[in-house]
Amino acid sequence: MLRHWDSSKHIFKIALFIAAIFFLVLALARPQWDKKEAVSGRQGIDIIFAIDTSRSMLAKDLPPNRLENAKASLALLLDQLAGNRVGLVAFAGTSFIQCPLTNDIDTIKLFLSSIDTELIPNPGTNIGKAINTAIKAFGKSSNSKAIIMLTDGEELDGSAIAAADNAAKNKISIYAVGIGSLDGATIPALDKDGKENGVKKDDDGNVILTRTNPELLEILAKKTKGKAFMITEDQSGFQKIFAAISSLPKQHLKNSFAFQYHDRFQIFIFLSLACLITEMLISERRDEK
Question: The VWFA domain covers which part of the protein (predicted)?
Answer without folding.
Answer: 46-245
